[in-house]
Amino acid sequence: MRSLVRNFAGLIAFLLLWELVVRLGVIAEEDVPPASVVLTRIAELFGQEAFLRDVIASVLAWLIALGIAIVIAIPLGLVLGNFPLVRMATRSIVEFLRPIPSVALIPLVLVVIGGGPEAKITLAVYAAVWPILYNTIYAFDEIDPLLIDTARSCGVHKSGILTTVALPHAAPFVFTGIRISASVGLIVIVSTEFIAGANVGLGSFILKAAHGAGRTDLVLAGTVVAGVIGYLANEGLERLGGKLFKWHKATTAEVA
């Protein structure tokens, strides 16, 4: 509760500072509308069906992409973390693909897949896989060998060690990777909608408001809504992780 109050107080202070800077003329109102104007536009937008469809389209694509990334990254991380030979054999491929920005692949994805929802989902999956994958691999690297030796001395087979020692140890790290990937995936979804000119989505709404009507207030309103979605997702996952893994310090550490 204290954390929530502090976050809310910081947000109020930021909004008041924003309002004050614009009202005093430090920044022209034509360039950056006051916070009160932007908040009013947000309230109005949530009464419009078209904007709600944009929000739902982005959130749905984001959830699908995050789910696919989890299904891909966790098993792959288990394999690479448990089998050093496989990890070494694939290291060059992984290190080649990982630094490539998702937005740099937009032209290729548009040519291969097309400009529908599949394009932004594919790019978001590509971006979201890496934090989960590396956190999973890192978790297995950090397992105390004494735990494994103790399990073996008690007659636990390799499959039992995986389920009773390795996976419980890795779970908090994997969850942290999922939390990081959730933020990354949302960024890529909205960015792809904006850059690729999607038909629906928050990025599409921001693009139309910027280039069509030239409405800075609507641009900022759409941006703030995207930011709030990302904040709520991260806050929710962080609190869930705190409850599930309160016994493990990895819940408060972001391992990228």
Keywords:
256 residues; mainly alpha; MetI-like fold; 10 helices; MetI-like; transmembrane; transmembrane helix
Please write out the topology.
Elements: H1 2-23, H2 35-45, H3 49-82, H4 84-97, H5 106-112, H6 117-141, H7 145-153, H8 158-196, H9 202-213, H10 216-244
Helix pairs in contact: 2-10, 3-4, 3-6, 3-8, 3-9, 6-8, 7-8, 8-9, 8-10, 9-10
Gist of the model:
This protein has 256 residues and is mainly α.
Structure characterization notes:
- It is a multi-pass membrane protein.
- It is found in: Cell membrane.
- Pfam families: BPD_transp_1.
- The chain has 256 residues and is mainly alpha-helical.
- The protein has 2 domains: 1-32; 39-252, MetI-like (MetI-like fold).
- The protein has helices at 2-23, 35-45, 49-82, 84-97, 106-112, 117-141, 145-153, 158-196, 202-213, 216-244.
- The longest helix has 39 residues, at 158-196.
Roughly what is the average pLDDT, rounded to an integer?
A: 86
Question: What is the string of helix and strand elements?
Answer: HHHHHHHHHH
Distance between the termini: 28 Å
- Approximate helicity band: over 70%
Just give the CATH class of the largest domain: Mainly Alpha
Helical stretch tally: 10
Helix and strand composition category? mainly alpha
Q: Which superfamily, in CATH terms, is the homologous superfamily of the largest domain?
A: MetI-like
Beta-sheet strand percentage?
A: under 5%
| Total domains | 2
Q: Indicate the CATH architecture of the largest domain.
A: Orthogonal Bundle
Number of strands: 0
Shape: globular
Low-confidence segments:
250-256
Q: Describe the largest sheet.
A: none
Whole-number radius of gyration?
22 Å
CATH topology of the largest domain: MetI-like fold
